[in-house]
Each structure stands twice: as C-alpha cells, then as structure tokens.
User: Fold Chloride channel protein, CIC family from Winogradskyella thalassocola.
Amino acid sequence: MPTKSPIRRLILLRYKYISQKNFVYILSTAVGLLTGIAAVTLKNITYAIQSGLEEGIIFSQNQLYFILPVIGLFLVYLLTKYMFKKGMTPSIPPFIKRAIPSLLYSLLRQKGLLSYKLIYHPLIMAPLTVGFGGSVGLLGPAITSGSALSSNLSRILHVDKKTRTLLIACATAAAVASMFKSPIAAIVLAVEIFSLDLTFASLLPLLIASISSVLTSYFFLGDELLFNFNVTEKFNPRDTAFYMLLGLGTGIASIYFTKMYFAIYAFFDRFKSRFTKLLVGGIAIGIMLYFIPPLYGEGLSFTKDLFEGNYLHALGSNPFDKYIDNIWVVIVLLIGFTIFKAIAMTTTFAAGGVGGVIVPTMVMGSALGNVVAKIINNIGLGHQVSESNFTLIGMAGLIAGVIHAPLTAIFLIAEITGGYILFLPLMITVAISYMITKNYMEHTIYTRELAERGDLLTHDKDQSVLTVMTLDSVIEKDFIALHPEMSLGEMLREGVSKSSRNLFPVTDSNDMFVGIILLDDIRSVMFDQSLYESTTVETFMHQAPDYILYEKDDMHTVMKKFQDSKAWNLPVIKDNKYYGFVSKSKLLTAYRTELINFTS
Assistant:
C-alpha cells in the first residue's frame, strides 16, 4: 500500500483535528511570518547594493551616480529576457502593469492562484531597480512576494478561493506592517484595497498576520524603521486654514500624479522593443538625476532630512548650489522635485523596472508639504507653521489622493510618528485631498484599467457579485433549434415532443438566430392537424425582446437587459450565431449564491 505524502497526512490531520476557523488563524500566522521574512530579505538585499555602490570610488567621488539606473534597468532587462523568459503570470492581460492590479485581477478571474516564480522574482528585480537608483519603492514587491507565498501555500493545503483571498489580504497587511511597523495601518490598507468586509472573521486573521510580520521584522532588524519621526510641535488651531490649503494642494498633486502616470505609460507603449524602452527610460532618468539628485532611489533619506529641517542635505549637490542660500531657490527646487518624482517613478516602471508606488507617493507628498510650509513662513504673512508637521501631513494627503485610501493615510502617519498628536490636521488634509481626487477621478492608478474592463471588485456588494459572475456559468444550451421553413407538424414532432422547454430558438441554415417561438404561440393550433403541413415555423416565430452579445455584454449589462425587457429568457449571440439562452431564474439563483459567498 503506497505511503501517504507528508502534505497529504497534514491535510488529513487538519480535517480531523483543526476547525476551519483555527486553521485560518494558523495560516495567517504563517503568512505573516513568511511575508515578514520576504520583506526583510528585500530590504537587506537592496540596502546592501546601495551601500556597495555608495562606497564605490568611481560613482561617489566623481558624481557619476546618475548612470547607475541605466545599469540597474539593463540587469533587470537581461534577467527578464533570459531567466524569467516565460513571464510570471501569462494569463494576466498586458494592460495590467503593476503588482496590486495584478493581484486584484488574479483574485477575480484566476481564483487568487499566483505563479510560484512571483515569490522570488520581486526579491531579485526590485533590489536591482531600487538599489541602482530607480525612483520606485519596495512595498509593492514585498506585497507581491508575500501574496505569492500565501497563494502557493493555500494551493498546497487545498484552501478554498474565499480563504485564499483573505490570506492574500493578510500578506498585504503583513508587508505593510513589516516595512513600517504599523499594524493598524496595514490592516486598514488591506481592507481598503481588497474591499474586504471589516468583520471579526476577516479582522482577526489580518491582525494576526500583521503582528506576526512585525515581530519577524523586529527579530531581524531590531528597532530599525523606514520612518522614525518624533513630533515635537502640537497642532495649533490657528493653522487650520493652512492645513486645508495643504489638502487642496495634495488633491491637485494627486490628480497630476495619476495623469502623469498614465501619460508616461502611453508614451512608452509606442515603443515595441523592451530594449528601446530601457534605453529611452534610462537616459531620461539619468538626465533628471543629474539636475535633481534626490530623485535617486526611494527617497527615504530625503524625507527624513526635510523633517529634521536639513533641506540643504536633502537637496544634495546640484547645478544650482551657488544659489542655494536663497530660500526661494530652495522652494523652487523642492517644487521641481515634487513635479519630477512622479515622472521619474513612472519612467522607471515603464522602462522595465520593478518596484512600488506607495513609498514614492509618500516622499513626493513630504516635499509638497514642506514647500507649502516654507511658502507660508516666507511670504510675509507674519505667521509661522511647523515645517516638520506639514512634511508629515503632506505625505498623508498624497496617499489619500493617489490610492484613494484615506484611513490608511491617517493611521500610517499617526503610527510612524508614535502617537495621535496630529490626528486632527491629518483628518482635515486627508479629507479634502480625498474629496477632490475622488470627485475628479473615480478610479486610481491601481483600479482604472480594471474598472474600464469590468474586472474590479468594490465595497458595493451588488456590483462585486455581478463582477465575479461569468456569462458562461448561466448560459443554457439544452434548447432544440427550429428552422423557418419547418412545417407545424415537423416542429411538433422534432421540437415540442422531444423538449422539456417551452421556448424554441429559430435559426437559419447558417445557425444565425432569426427569432423565437413560445409554446404559448402555438398552443391554440397545435392539435389542429389541418395546419400541420400548410403552416410553417416562420408563421409563428417572432423577435426576442432583446439579445445578449457574448463578446460584448458583461453581467451588469445582462441584468439591465432583463430589467428593461421584462423577459424571462434572452438569447445569447456568439460570433453572430445562436449560442444559447440565459434565463432570469438561473441568473438570479447564481446571483444569490455568489451573494451568500460574499456575506457569509
């Protein structure tokens, strides 16, 4: 008798001794631990590359660092071409270009099943991109690696789709918690991005994963933090109007950020060759770095310097050094950094780099907040505001506007500053920024492409249920097709007598749909034998109330067509030919089943 594999025995023991609820708690702990290790590994590899390059005589002393991103992108290009030639997720459509949209699409259309290569792909590519100066972040790659770990773990242990979705959300929370040591913001981000219901069933696994990841980060890195700010100046109510102004500024900057993101991608999409994209992007990044050195890498040290008031060190050595004593030159340089950070980040992505969006967004927001504070303090109003506080709150305002995650923005800044001293100004700025961008742009850089194609889950359960449903799952094909030239007698012998349906599609010799016949249409004459040979199907058929186009209509459209036509059955047309019917009863049954899955 063959011996059961260890995995098989583990699964059997799990079903025998461990309840589903406790099993999810165990898995969320494991996901937090594994994602924490992945995040720590990612940071250590990246910082090792950066440290090695900073100590290099050629690049540090001769100020040739601006050519490093080209080298990094070229290494990514070579690895992509030869090591990861077949790609990570072949079924992900090419219009999806970032990590989180890929996860959202996978959860919707692929049951959350991710390639095992995505576990180590970001751990190689992101450090090469960021370590060599690419103007992107590490959080996105950490989320991708952790999500791939949780997806493949759930596949090995035969976890269902719903639990797999929760575990991928746990991986997202764990990555954020490990990077920022902010478990509350991590949970909120997972809820806002993945549109989870904040119930005890989802909250506790997210909390366990976050705690496990934070402890892992403390174990390997100690008290080291990405951001370590101690707020010394409390909120002054007299500054309320200026925080509102900052909210307006971050809202406008968020719109600029998003539009620039899609515009640059559209520009690079015109180049068919990946090497051409690398060359154009690398040269563009090098030029930007020469004039604005702080664009190099993630930009975390830049934000720390601004918070500490050391803006000269933040700006670094640049062609405008002899004018740096003028505060308005400093302000202009910071505005330039704010404008070009979005350009440098997206160019890095479009040129083939691997990284994340959230940290560059925070860095850009810190520069904008600092600019607003400096303008207020030097414009001659006779009123001074805290530049460090505005630097922090600018970060929150841009996060809220760019990724439409206002609660994440508030709790993240509150946690990394070690308290809630700035909670009120955070709420003011974030609320205004989010309101402006949400009214102007319904979707973010994460969700726009998915929404345009009907592949986006939201907190609207009706909307999400219809998005998850597929047309193929409700099409019925057990209908007997009739032809217009058939006689009434043939119709009764070949159709009515052999069918359990009271509806018959009528097609021509090429299977083109030409009409329908209901049993009610012939009920009054079906026993009149004098008409069996003298009348044909064409006499009784009529047009359907509406048609469902297989290649075009999504489930939202299908539901609306049923609502408008008042029909109980609608024909499906595929490749201009009859394909089947969708019945209202089956559609509503499928809808109720999916709704139960969402709410249970």
In short: The radius of gyration is 29 Å. Residues 57-62 have pLDDT under 50 and may be disordered.
